[in-house]
Amino acid sequence: MKVLVSGSTGLIGSALVSLLRSKGYEVIRLVREKSLPDENATYWDIPSGHIETKELEGMDAVVHLTGANLSAGRWTEKRKAAFHESRVRATRVLSDALAGLERPPGVFISASAIGYYGNRGSEKLSEDSPSGTGFLAELCRQWEDATNPAKAKGIRVVTARIGVVLSPRGGALKKLLPFFRLGLGGKMGGGAQYMSWISIHDLVRAFQYCLSHEDLCGLVNFVAPNPVTNAEFTRALATACRRPALLPVPGWVLKLMFGEMAEETILSSARVLPEKLRASGFDFHFPELQKALRHLLN
User: Fold this and answer.
1) What is the side-by-side order of every strand in the sheet holding 41-45?
2) Residues 10/90, Cβ–Cβ less than 8 Å
3) Residue 97: predicted pLDDT
4) Entry pTM
5) At what angle do helices 135-145 and 77-84 cross, to 10 degrees?
6) CA end-to-end distance (rounded Å), the chain
7) Cα radius of gyration rounded to whole Å, the chain
8) Does residue 39 have a pLDDT over 80?
């Protein structure tokens, strides 16, 4: 199977490309830097909307992971514009290009995020649950709607609502590890907010699974089946690091430091369940947090 992957140098993309190539897939990277020649790459320019469509003809599948980092700092108006450009506009450019092909791919898997659901407390959320409120929820709605041209073309579109990705190489876990290994970790805010997480290992396996399982279509939650509260997560991480978790970070401190970003990510609660993946028969290797952390931290 010939698969085009955007965002291939990011945390998820690099792990996915490695997995797919190890399984015998032919992977073509969709990149923005022509200064980095790669015989297995094709190029696009998101601001101008240019994409080399002739290179897309005959692809069996496309996995779209491009998106600026949401948790790198405060959400200024400039950064919000970058989020929109790298998610909504990028997805629309790619979706329009796929819809215009004579030989479009059979499946288009496009990333989204569980931020779609907003702050929902302890409510159990499935793919059928309505959207929440706030900047991130609205961004996700527009991001997902940008795949509509590909759907209209008849391409099987899978919208991957991704949870908190656990990997020591990036994301939240990489940022937290130095503190927890020194015994300086603790719950964030009240600690009752739910975290819907997934191991990077299961995440890339889920992407591969969706490539070949035609029963999976539309919205799919890419999260482990056992979400935990922030307090439970910090206790599990401290245990995995063999250190106590005695230094909580008050919510007001996080809001002071990160503003809206803290309110809509760190302090927001989303108890999301992977109902479609489980119904389809996907086998999570790491459904429980403690086992996942032991594997990730070796």
Assistant:
1) 50-51, 41-45, 26-31, 2-6, 61-64, 107-113, 156-162, 218-222
2) no
3) 97
4) 0.95
5) 20
6) 32
7) 19
8) no
Q: Which tens digits make up the pLDDT trace of 136-161? A: 999 999 999 999 999 999 999 999 99
Q: Which of 96, 111, 102, 137 is nearest to 7 (CA)?
A: 111
Instruction: Provide CATH code, domain 2-169+197-227+272-288.
Output: 3.40.50.720
Distance CA 244, CA 258 (A): 25
Q: Give the DSSP H/E element, type plus range, for residue 5.
A: strand 2-6
At residue 3, φ and ψ (nearest 5 deg) are -125, 130
CA 177, CA 131: separation in Å to the nearest integer? 32
Distance, CA of 261 to CA of 235 (rounded, Å): 23
Task: Give the C-alpha separation, 248 to 189, whole Å.
Answer: 7
Element containing residue 177 per DSSP (H, E): helix 171-181
Which residue in this structure is represented by tokens 């015994």? 183
Alpha-carbon distance 12 to 169, whole Å?
A: 10
* 239 vs 234: CA distance, rounded Å: 8
